[in-house]
Amino acid sequence: MAVGDCCFVALVVSLLRCIVVAGEGVEPSLLLLPEREQEAAYRALESVNPSVPWRALYPDDLCLSGPHGIVCDLLPSSNSGDDESPHIVELNFGYVSEFSNNPPCGPDATLPGTLSSFPFLRKVFFYNCFTSTKVVLSTDFWNLSSAVEEIAFYQNPSLGGSLSNRLAGLSRLSRLIVSGSQISGTITSEVGDLRRMEQLILSRNRLRGEIPRSIGRLGLLKVFDVSGNRIGGAIPSEIGRLAELVKLDISSNSIVGRIPAELGGLSRVELLDLSENRLTGGVPAFLAELKNLREIHLSGNPLGGAIPEVWEKLGGVLGVGMSRLGLVGSVPSSMGVYLGSVTYLALDNNKLEGELSEQFRRMESTAMEINLENNGLRGRVPFSAGFVRRLDGKLRLAGNPDLCLGEENEAGSRRGAAASYLRRCNKTADPQPVLFTSSGFSPENGSLFYLGVLVVFLVFL
């Protein structure tokens, strides 16, 4: 929407507001934005884009006819609650789209120094504002009203500074987002005092230090994302106390040690991303307890060990990332049996051996990408010709010299990627048989099953 259109809409809103107020017998002058907030709003707009003549474009009350992004509300002017007056409750800066046409930020944008002048401010939002001139997030910025519920900085690559200990004074803060900036320093332990916090997103910055153990006190936290920083130390076991957590992403850091078993208490977690760190100690068996898990990403950690038998309880998982873990042993047949909803499976660049169970064909209805490259797998590829043809380059099997294509799936992939690097199976390369038992599908139990059938048959003769 153009600036002229915004002015026209604001004028219409202003006229309607006056009509309503007059109809209620209240003087319109009594519902004007306080002068202090009006001036502070002008100065904030001039900070983010000094090239725009904000005062000339919006000479009237900014609550009645202001730019999109400045949001007002009628609030009691005293504790009695008898009288209400307009106050600015949201400041949103940075053009996002036509559907969220906030005041655009200029190339020389700076942080407003007047935010403490808004006593009822609930939300402050900056998107792609600080992109060229370096801007420092100083301690003074955090002198905000205790009414603030949301602070968001998205994609501001020239924003520096650090998080402040004064965060603890924002007792109503439920959402803190600083993503895509040069914010450095550590995550202050005072963050644990923000008991109303539901989303703490500090991704793609330059944070260092460790994740504070006080994070375990945020009982309402649903999203914790510190991915793409320089954080070290171990994963605090206290994270396992976050019973409401839905997303945990600490990927692309320098975190070390074992994955604490206490994370098995995250019964509501749907996304668990611990990838690209320095974690050790094997793939944890507690994954079986995460009944709501939809995505698990562990790739790029020297975990080692075998793939655990946890898949019977994880039938709703959509994505599994276990590349470059140093995994050994075979690929459990239970993955093929129970991961019937999976869209993404990555087990590449490990030390996996053996044959792939015929049960992996169960993935064909949902799988969009399967990567098993650079292992020691052997035998016939279990997938159908149609599936091999459909996935083409998204079915990655190279680097397994003893893996081969049967006649039926070779025909389906004759023009695809798989045929270019997999040999054709000889007639003795049969798929690995898998039988269902009370504990799942186990190829080792196959011979015992047939022996039992033979014994029963001989008895009844």
TrEMBL record:
Domain spans labelled Disease resistance R13L4/SHOC-2-like LRR: 187-296
Subcellular location: Cell membrane
GO CC annotations, alphabetized: plasma membrane
Primary location: membrane
Record's signal peptide: 1-23
UniProt keyword Nucleotide-binding, yes or no: no
Keywords associated with the record: Cell membrane, Leucine-rich repeat, Membrane, Repeat, Signal
Pfam families on file: LRR_14
Record bears the keyword Cell membrane: yes
Annotated protein name in UniProt: Disease resistance R13L4/SHOC-2-like LRR domain-containing protein
